[in-house]
Design goal:
Elements (H helix, E strand, L loop, with lengths): L2 E6 L8 E6 L2 E8 L2 E6 L13 E11 L2 E14 L6 E3 L14 E2 L1 E4 L2 E5 L4
Antiparallel strand pairs: 1-10, 2-3, 3-4, 4-8, 5-6, 6-7, 9-10
Length: 121
C-alpha cells in the first residue's frame, strides 16, 4: 500500500503521542529522540484507546545472585495502556504479556512530511 501523509514533521512534538485518523483507523505518531513511530491506537487486550496511555522508557530486569536488577532502557520506548498499564514497544508492538502485540506501521520522514504505510490488519 502507498504511504499516507499524516502531517508535517514539526506537527509532532518530541516524546509525545499525537493521534491521527487514517481511513477508519486511529494511529498514534510519536517522535522519540531521532526516531519516529506509528502504532495503532487500539490495545490488543481489551480494545482500550492505547495512544491515550503513557509514554516512557522501557525497563529491563535481570535476576542474578538473589537480587533483582531493574534498569531503564532508553533505546526501548514503550506505551502503557491507559486501562490496565500493559506495556507495548513503540518499535515493534511487542508486549511483556505473551500472545499480545500492538499493531505498528512503517513510518518515515520525507521532505519534512511524515509518511505512514498502512497495510492490512
Amino acid at each position: 500500500m502507498s504511504p499516507v501523509d499524516v502531517g508535517a514533521a514539526g506537527d509532532f512534538p518530541a516524546d509525545a503521542m499525537t493521534i491521527v485518523k487514517v481511513g477508519d483507523a486511529e494511529i498514534g505518531i510519536c517522535r522519540w529522540g531521532t526516531e519516529i513511530f506509528a502504532i495503532r491506537s487500539r490495545c490488543p487486550h481489551q480494545a482500550a484507546p492505547l495512544c491515550e496511555g503513557f509514554l516512557q522508557t522501557g525497563l529491563s530486569a535481570e535476576f542474578a545472585a538473589g537480587e533483582l536488577d531493574v534498569q531503564a532502557d532508553a533505546g526501548r520506548p514503550v506505551i502503557l495502556c491507559p486501562w490496565h498499564r500493559w506495556e507495548f514497544s513503540l518499535r515493534d508492538g511487542t508486549s511483556v504479556v505473551p500472545g499480545f502485540r500492538a499493531r505498528t506501521y512503517p513510518v518515515r520522514i520525507e521532505r519534512g512530511r511524515v509518511l505512514v504505510t498502512i497495510g492490512r490488519d
